[in-house]
Amino acid sequence: MNMLQKVKTTDVKGAWVDFIHQLQTNICAAIEQLDGSACFTEDAWQRLDGKGGGGLTKVIQNGNVFEKGGVNTSVVYGQVTEAMRSQLNISDEDGAKRPAKWFAAGISLVIHPVNPFVPTVHCNYRMFELYNDEDVLADRWFGGGTDLTPYYLFEEDARSFHQAYKTVCDKFDSILYRTMKKECDDYFVNKHRNNERRGIGGIFYDHRRADEDHGVDFWMNFAKACGNAFIPAYLPIVKKRKDISFTEKNRYWQEIRRGRYVEFNLIHDRGTLFGLRTGGRIESILMSLPPTVRFEYDYQPEKDSEEQKLIGVLMNPREWI
Amino acid sequence: MNMLQKVKTTDVKGAWVDFIHQLQTNICAAIEQLDGSACFTEDAWQRLDGKGGGGLTKVIQNGNVFEKGGVNTSVVYGQVTEAMRSQLNISDEDGAKRPAKWFAAGISLVIHPVNPFVPTVHCNYRMFELYNDEDVLADRWFGGGTDLTPYYLFEEDARSFHQAYKTVCDKFDSILYRTMKKECDDYFVNKHRNNERRGIGGIFYDHRRADEDHGVDFWMNFAKACGNAFIPAYLPIVKKRKDISFTEKNRYWQEIRRGRYVEFNLIHDRGTLFGLRTGGRIESILMSLPPTVRFEYDYQPEKDSEEQKLIGVLMNPREWI
Questions:
Q1: Distance in Å, alpha carbon of A256 to nearest chain B alpha carbon
Q2: I want to staple B176 with a disulfide (CB 3.0 to 4.6 A). Which of A299, B7, B169, B231 is the partner?
């Protein structure tokens, strides 16, 4: 990990970076095995112009099962810039407590399957640290989540997906699932589309810091457990739906809904906009965009259709458990 | 124009509103005639919840020549909200000079042709007024522009398009074309894509107010002349290129480039973001998005190809005249 030599390493940081790289390897292997045709290609990249760190972008395209997917890790650091200060709402204290340097490491993935009956999935787990001028840790938080974006609603898939994350959450604190399920429903929202949700949710959380109740180990282990839950939560759904036959009309609907995915990611997603405004690697950030997309003026699904049924749960998120 | 009865009408306002409606009719007729197959459908809409005004959205889809196009007019007004104050950078004066009400009327169009050798075009001409609490006009400005987004570069098309607007500009003031051509190159930029331009430009201007040199008539007549130049500037290019035979590869490239169009409109375009944040009519705002779009990870055109040649002029805007 030579990209880490320039920053003061700690056990927390080292353990987290090891974890995200191992998880990236495991997820890519499981996805390739299930696809049976396409393989991930790798791009290792470094930040330029004195900005520290880099990442490993792994992309799969035109597979049997997966049309486009990216599984990225990044380990990046640098001086706190004004753009970052305003994007992150970092407080503007004077003197030794003023954050001067930052460090972030995370894994982020989006998978767009071929078959419209297989949902798209997104997951992201990250750690962020701030330091003062003397390299003393000033703040550290964890954030992340995993959420599902189906094109057709299979209620049993929604339940099994939510149950997988509820099981993880409950091992840590019985309040977590309820809180983070709501946070997810409140975050992945196309506000400009009358608050239509991007999908049927999952969990989402941010700015989780060590406190009297929960130490840094708690939040690190929680993020690890959520990350490790990805394969057993998502891949069984793919296996169950990937061979359902579909029509041009199903595919058309998938592309219309992918348009909403694009709208959310480019207009609202904090992670995407943060990346674009603070000079992240564009191709890695935008690998989340779906492969083929359709924008049709005022498209309306037929009344009482399966397409309309999906919209119902996107407008009024349900409790799945 | 019953939507205008609630606001204090003036000759300027009335003349401008008449103009944009007439231009909309003329442009739609010319486009339908050239297409020879599809017709525009009309949606007249009113703003709800006590917000004043409405618009007429005209959309053409799946034509022989035009795959998707929208020609919108809107005549809208209301109280100045906080969202608008910050979006428009309206000064925060106290008392009678503080802007309390606004009025806007404009025409906006985007046309996405089927054939990848025919460029996409965008044009927009608008008037904006602010009033104080006593309905006294406090400010008025004009803005607009027309710009071309080719998928393949025909230098003679770029020249004839720019020449059409230079001819209009020169009739008003010899400095206008140079200024507004640069403003266009500086505005339609995907900053997150290393400053790649959306297309080969045209003219763009905003906040043009009456002053000692140029009265309100000057800016109104200029906007009218630019609006009227649309048909003779764009349609001859369509006629010349619409029957060139194209391959799947040409179409693929068109869809990749349409992805960049989506990125600009959703991430950077002030008009789009202003509309989304101030409660504009979503379907009318987003009719600008292309019908079918492709996002591929790290797509690179072949060296010395026609595709690469286009990128050259998008990275380094040229003087066409």
A1: 9
A2: B169
